[in-house]
Specification:
The protein contains no helices and 21 strands. It is mostly beta strands. The chain has three domains: about 70 residues, Immunoglobulin-like (Sandwich); about 90 residues, Immunoglobulins (Immunoglobulin-like), CATH 2.60.40.10; about 80 residues, Immunoglobulin-like, CATH 2.60.40. The strands form six sheets. It has a five-stranded mixed β-sheet, with no helix packed on it. Strands 3-2-5-6 form a four-stranded antiparallel β-sheet, with no helix packed on it. Strands 18-17-20-21 form a four-stranded antiparallel β-sheet, with no helix packed on it.
């Protein structure tokens, strides 16, 4: 999860072992390398899980005791368990590079009309001793009911001010109530994750965006990208499993139960 660092050293003894330490002699050992005949080395290491801010990489010559150091600044990073999903689904974020035992707020942010940004709180959690949301401190949240499109998930540290950003894409979803019944039955079709105001067609035997099944009804998504529409199952429908799809012309968006 940490950044990969390229560490270069010069003016050490020739063909000597050099140990790289994170945050001093009492810190964590990163690796051991050997200098070339001119006393130099180049090695790649991964920065360990650490709190936000500057940290020291210390190179120690194991024969002469010579030392050199450089500074690396840790910034916050965040990763989503799933990068896309429908409204109402459960997701989780892990993160590193915040303060130790710090409260981190997780926000859902989107662009709004007239250039204003829409932001609201998804969840709060507390980092571990190394400034991470991981393992037992991973932060779960429920994807909000919002119109289709992308959103930025922002994690903000309350004390350090560290900030990490990752992106999430909403995908449409729908449901039928009831899920079974006779031909000509009246059912309610509901959905979410469509574009606000988008026109929708509910089609019978519709298993893909390009379906050509008969249209059961038409409607329009509301401001939150949701819809609810009562339709009749075709009178000529045969017994068995059938797929009902909600198709929107905007970017060919489509959803069916379980999709």
């Amino acid at each position: 999860m940490g950044a990969t660092l390229t560490v270069r050293g010069t003016l050490f003894g020739p063909a000597e072992p050099v140990v790289l330490m994170w945050d001093g002699l009492k810190g964590r050992r990163l690796t051991t390398t050997t200098t070339t005949s001119d006393g130099s080395f180049i090695v790649r290491v991964r920065a360990p899980e650490s709190v936000f801010g500057p940290h020291t990489v210390l190179a120690v010559d194991q024969r002469s005791g010579g030392r050199a150091r450089a500074t690396f600044t840790v910034h916050a990073q965040a990763w989503l368990l799933r990068r896309s999903g429908p409204p109402g689904s459960v997701n989780a974020v892990s993160a590193t590079g915040f303060g130790a035992h710090e409260t981190v707020a997780l926000y859902w942010t989107t662009s709004a009309p007239r250039g204003r940004a829409g932001r609201f709180l998804l969840a709060r959690g507390t980092t571990n001793a190394r400034g991470s949301l991981a393992g037992v401190t991973i932060l779960s949240f429920t994807v909000p009911v919002r119109p289709a499109g992308g959103a930025a998930i922002v994690a903000l540290g309350a004390r350090s001010g560290a900030m990490a950003l990752t992106t999430f894409t909403l995908v449409p979803t729908m449901h039928i109530n009831p899920l079974r019944g006779p031909a000509s039955a009246l059912v309610t079709i509901g959905g979410a994750g469509f574009r606000a105001g988008a026109s929708l067609a509910i089609a019978w035997n519709c298993a893909s965006r390009a379906c050509a099944g008969p249209v059961l009804g038409k409607g329009r998504a509301g401001k939150a990208g949701t819809f609810s529409l009562a339709v009749l199952i075709p009178a000529a429908a045969r017994a068995g499993v059938h797929t009902v799809g909600a198709v929107s012309g905007w970017l060919g968006r489509w959803a069916s139960p379980g999709s």
